Amino acid sequence: MITENTLPRSPPGPHAWLTVPAVSIGGVLIGILLTYLQVPSAILIGVAGCVIASFILGYIAYSKPKRDIVSLFAPLYAVIIFLIPNDFSNGPVMQTLYAVSISILALRVEKRFSKPMHQEKTMKQFLNEYIARIEPITKSIDEETGHRLASSLLTFKFGLYKNAIVRCDEALGRLRETGTMPGALEAALMIVRERSEDLAESRVTPAPHYTFAESDAEALAIRLRPEDMQDKAALDLDNALVLLYAVSIETSPEDEQALEEHQRFVIQILEAYKEQLAE
Question: I need a surface site. Which of 4, 39, 91, 166 has the fewest CB within 10 A?
């Protein structure tokens, strides 16, 4: 058995589209000139130029990041018009119109379909990148503390607001006990605790007491420009929940399955800011 190592073919260069008008229009002009000189069957040179240029256009269109359906079918059009017997005239006028048309298509393909397709970052990818970014915080948290952070998040998510207050207090106590108290993490727990108190009492606090400081910005998942902040309190709560999730999923093996099952909750928070995060 013979095995061949095949290297990936490089796509046509940015000027490859020029071969389409060169072959098609060039072939038509040469055919007209030779016909004028009374060379037998010279008009077929124009036909050959149009057909060959159509296959070149089809290949160029296929190699682009985005596909132009019209250009992809150019070889089929050429076969129907010039090779299959039909009522179309294969004379110089048809050849000229066809050559000009596929030349315009070739330019269109190069200008509109050469840019790589923009692949939007999914919010799950964004979350994974965020978790990696806050590694300095997660590395300082032990499993017991991670479990208490996860309990604070999950009880809030389940609507058990009075229990969430207790779990936040336990997590804060554990952080103080271990001597690891990242400022952003403490703020996140206080924000969730304050919100739990409001929900438990069915009240609304217009201006929450606890918020993230400017120094916490690097630890936050959702960082918006000032003009995009319509509700600072809601933004702080969303950032607090995402931060608690990110730290918990990395530091509490005991709660990993439960957290993964409720990952959609965090993804939905991030999706609400998808447009701003993509900018």
Answer: 4
**In angstroms, rounded to a whole number, what is the distance separating the alpha carbons of residues 222 and 234?**
11
Tens-place pLDDT, residues 161-174: 999 999 999 999 99
The Cα–Cα gap between 242 and 265 comes to: 9
Q: Which residue has the tokens 């964004």?
A: 126
Q: Which of 176, 158, 184 is nearest to 243 (CA)?
A: 184
Is pTM beyond 0.85 here? Answer: no
- Residue 94 burial (C-beta neighbours within 10 Å; 0-12, 13-18, 19+): middle
The residue behind tokens 């999950």 is 154
- What does the alpha-carbon distance between residue 14 and residue 114 come to, in Å, rounded to a whole number? 8
- Between CA 269 and CA 241 the distance in angstroms is 9
Query: If we measure between CA atoms, which residue out of 233, 249, 54 comes closest to residue 149?
Result: 249
| Cα(135)–Cα(186) distance, integer angstroms | 16
Give yes or no for a contact between 232 and 183, defined as CB atoms under 8 angstroms apart.
Answer: no
For residue range 6-44, list pLDDT tens digits in order: 434 456 777 888 999 999 999 999 999 998 888 888 889
Q: Is 75 helix (H, G, I), strand (E, B) or coil?
A: helix
User: Which residue from 269, 279, 275, 276 is spatially nearest to 124, judged by alpha carbons?
Assistant: 269
88 token code pair: 């179309």
